[in-house]
Structure formats: structure tokens, C-alpha cells
Amino acid sequence: PLEMSSKKPVPFLRQVISVPKKVHRDPRFDDLSGEYKPEIFMKTYSFLDSIKKQEKEMVQKQLKKCRNAEQKEKLQQLLNRMTQQEQAQKKQQKLRERELSLKRQQRELAKQGKKPFFLKKSEKRKLELAEKYAELKRSGKLERFLSKKRKRNAIKDKRHLPSQKNL
């Protein structure tokens, strides 16, 4: 800012030097960066999967060699986080593939001259649950999953019942 004397009255129409304002761009929300398409993104950055795999193997080797308990705990947490991220990515990929297959089916029906039918969220959830049960049955883990679910529900029901003290 220009330094002015406080003795003189400020002129009504004073000259102000304009400074060009910096415009900050966030590529996530800017149209100039293009549209986000997960398929293209996955193809472009598929090389990262192999790098992540190598890093995971390296962490596993370090974990086997490590003697320090504190260091071992940190490495175990890192390994757990890596596996969880991997599982989440696979789950998301499955979901995307399922949605694409549904879209393909709708296109085929539209080509045949039939009216397209779109599933509601609840129906999609039911299909997903049925698929999960089928997967658990295949792997032989269905009974254990159902027993855990029953226990959880029993605990929830117990919470809503009046306690023995009040009777």
C-alpha cells in the first residue's frame, strides 16, 4: 500500500494500483482437467498395483527380520493397512463390473425394443447380499459368518430388553 501523510485530507477519487489476483485451481473440481472416468484412471495407473505389491512383499520381509517390538507393531499396522486397501480396491472393482454388466444388459434389452428397467438401491443391495452369501457358501465360511451375525443381533436385542435389576 502507498504510504500517505495523515496531515492531508484523503482525496475523494484517489488512484489505487490494482494487483492481479492469483487464481487457485483445484484440479478435482475444475472442468479444464477433464472428466473423471474410473476405467481410464485404472488403466492409466495400473502400474501402481505392481509397485504396491512389491512394497507389500518388502514390508513382509522386514516384518520377519524385525526384532524390535515397537518397530514390529508399526510394520504390522502398515501391512494391515495395505491389505485393507487392496481388498477395498478389489471390492470397488467388483462393484464397478457389476454395474457395467447391468448397463450392458439394459442396452441389449433396449436394442431388442424392450423398455429399460432400472433396479432400486434396495434391490441392488439384496442382489449384493445374495452374491455375498453365495461366495461365503463356496468358500465354506457361511456358517461361521451366520453365527457371528446371530451373536451380534442377540447382543442388540439384549440391549433393548429391560435389565434384571428393574424387575
From TrEMBL:
Its main location: nucleus. It is found in: Nucleus, Nucleolus. Keywords: Nucleus, Ribonucleoprotein, Ribosome biogenesis, rRNA processing. Residues 82-101, 144-167 are annotated as: Disordered. One of its GO terms (biological process) is maturation of SSU-rRNA from tricistronic rRNA transcript (SSU-rRNA, 5.8S rRNA, LSU-rRNA). It comes from the Eukaryota. It holds the Pfam family RRP36. Residues 147-167 have a biased composition (Basic residues). GO terms for cellular component: 90S preribosome; nucleolus. Signal peptide: none annotated. InterPro entries: RRP36 (IPR009292). Coiled coil: none annotated. Belongs to the RRP36 family. Component of the 90S pre-ribosome involved in the maturation of rRNAs. Required for early cleavages of the pre-RNAs in the 40S ribosomal subunit maturation pathway. Associates with 90S and pre-40S pre-ribosomal particles. This is rRNA biogenesis protein RRP36.
